[in-house]
Each structure stands twice: as structure tokens, then as C-alpha cells.
Amino acid sequence: MQPSFILIILGMTCLLLFAYPYFIYPVILKTLPILPVRRGAFAGRASLQFCVHNEEAALPQKLASLKRLKTTMPDLEILVFDDSSTDASAQILSQEDGLLTLVRGVDRCGKAAGMKRLAAMAQGDIIVFTDANVIFADDAIQKLLTYYADGNVGGVCGTLLYQDESPSITSEISTSYWSLDERARSLETATGNVMGADGSIFSIRRHLYPDFPDTVLDDLTVSMSVIFQGRRLIKADDVIAYERSVAVHDEEFRRKIRIGARAYHTHSYLRPQLRQMQRIDRFKYASRKQMRWFGGLFLGLAGLCFVGAIAGYSWILAAGALVVAGAAAIVLQRLGPALMAKPIAAATLIFATLYGVILGMTGRTFVTWAPAKSR
């Protein structure tokens, strides 16, 4: 068999591995047995909590949403941690004594530390977690609580919808990626457990809240602890929240690096418990989490294999193809139509995630955060 042909086969295999978590994994999930969830009235109380750092631009809309939630659920407890904001966030929140309880940090400590402080204060049977820039549908918490009528359910994730007032290539990529992720979460739920929550909207039974270091992703750690403790973690398609996606490529690029590093750091912390999960959950976790983290590696290896196949015929032709492909990528990203610019921009974000994971593998992580200005 010709070496060039072998390289082409290897390149196609790498492309399949790259596509697997997005397109092949969901098809496999559809073949698994369905595990229904029983819904009904839930008499317990809910506590809603989130952290803030320099979110004064998002707070007016957030507070209006909280007031609507409080109108329909008067016993809803709302807890907010201000992580040493340098803008007017703390002042704005401090004026809402009748609506929420504000805890102010002395020094920057990060979201995980802030969430732990709030969780220790929470009085509700169910703790609902969110972000400062996320807006809940008015009936979101009421619908969320109905899933806790099922005693096997320990955690419920909501459904996040992106709203783009000024669409950009970056925001459209984020929306498309998130749609694929939400679809996978729904399919995972139908077959048992969803593999981790996003911090925008999720909840757990308060007594299941774990202890963990401040350096990990609190949303992934807290939500996966539900599974580790033998309860179901599910996604509710009718529990809706809204968020504006990041519109500037550089901001999203840095965000992907930060998330990738923290995700792998969290994975390392959770590894002993991950290994003890049921086989189906280990399969799900590897398929949706780990395979995506290394998507940039599969994509890069595919490119190298194809270049190597061309080089088998002519190194000059291979070098010329690389130069032309690189020049075309730069020109199309800056001047070309969105049809060509989107794949290029998406590829850079995929490699940003891989870079973050590599940082995580070397022991690097991120504790604090800054809100994206383009949201």
C-alpha cells in the first residue's frame, strides 16, 4: 500500500474523530434506552445565587428579571456575591435590600470561592446557579422545580438560548456550537445523565453541594457531584434562560483558552470519581468532553496527514499548498465572505480550546474572570 494512501486514510480518520462528538455521538445516543423523569408539584423552597465582577452594564436588565421572578415566587431567596468590583456593581446591588442579599468580597477570590460562600448561606431546598448576565424566563424556576418531584433527580440544568442584537461571525459560531451542545445534553438526559452543567442556569438539591478547591470550574464540579452521589443530573428543555453571546473574536479566543485550562484542571481533580462512574456515563463523558477538548489536535493531525500525502508525490507541491492555504486563510478571514470566514474563525477557537487544555495539563489554571465587553 502506498504511503500517501495510508496518510490519506489516517487524515480521514482524524477528521472523523474531530466530527465524532458533534455528529456521530448524538446518533449513538439515539439508540440507547430512554429513562423517563417523573414531574409534579414540589413543595420545597429555592435559593438563586450568582457572582458579580464589574457587571454594572448587565445589572439593570438582570435586576428587572429578578423582580419578575420574585413577584411570581415571593419565597425565592436571592444571594449575590460581589467579587471586589471596581465599577458601580456593588452600589447598584446594595440598593436592592428587599430583593436580594449582597455579600461583598474583600479581595478578588474568583467565582468558585464566591459561590461556595453563598451556598453555605442558602436556605432553600434547591440551589439555582446562574451568571450576572443571564436572564431567566419568568416561569423558569417554577418549571425547574417540577423535575425535583422525581426523587432520583439530584440536579437539573436549564436550556440557554443566545440572543444576538448585533450578530457577528464570532457570535454566530458560538450560537451554532451551543446549539449542537444543547442537542447533545438533551439526548444525554433522555438516556440517563447529562455530562455536566453550564454556569448560566443549573440547580442541585442543597444537601448534595460538595466541597472543592477555588481553582476548579464550580459549575462542572458541583453538577458532576450529583452523579457521583448516585442521583440523576438532567437537562430541562422547557426551563429557559437567555444570554448575549460574545461578539468579538479576540474576547472569545481568550475565553476559550481560560475555559480549556480550567476544564482540564477540573478533570484532573475529579478523575478518581470519574473513574468510578457507570460505564455508560464514562462513555458519555469521554465523548462529549474529552473528545472536544482535543478537537484541535485531530484537526491539526488531519492537515499534516494530507500535506504528507501530497509530499509523497512532491515536496515542492506540498510546500506550495501550505503557502497558498495559509495566504488564502488570512485573506478570506479578513476580506472574504462569511461562508469562508466562519470555518476559519471556528478553527481558531477550536485551537484556542486545545491550547487551554495544554496549559491545564502543565498545571496552569485561572481563578478569576472578567466579563466580555462585547456581550
Automatic annotation (TrEMBL):
SUPFAM superfamilies listed in its UniProt record: Nucleotide-diphospho-sugar transferases
Species of provenance: Allopontixanthobacter confluentis
Transmembrane segments: 6-29, 291-309, 315-332, 344-367
GO molecular function, one term: glycosyltransferase activity
Pfam family name, one: Glycos_transf_2
Name recorded for this polypeptide: Glycosyltransferase
Domain Glycosyltransferase 2-like per the UniProt entry, residue ranges: 51-209
Gene3D superfamilies reported in the protein's UniProt record: Spore Coat Polysaccharide Biosynthesis Protein SpsA, Chain A
Family designation: Belongs to the glycosyltransferase 2 family.
Record key words, sorted: Glycosyltransferase, Membrane, Transferase, Transmembrane, Transmembrane helix
Superkingdom, taxonomy of origin: Bacteria
Taxon lineage: Bacteria, Pseudomonadati, Pseudomonadota, Alphaproteobacteria, Sphingomonadales
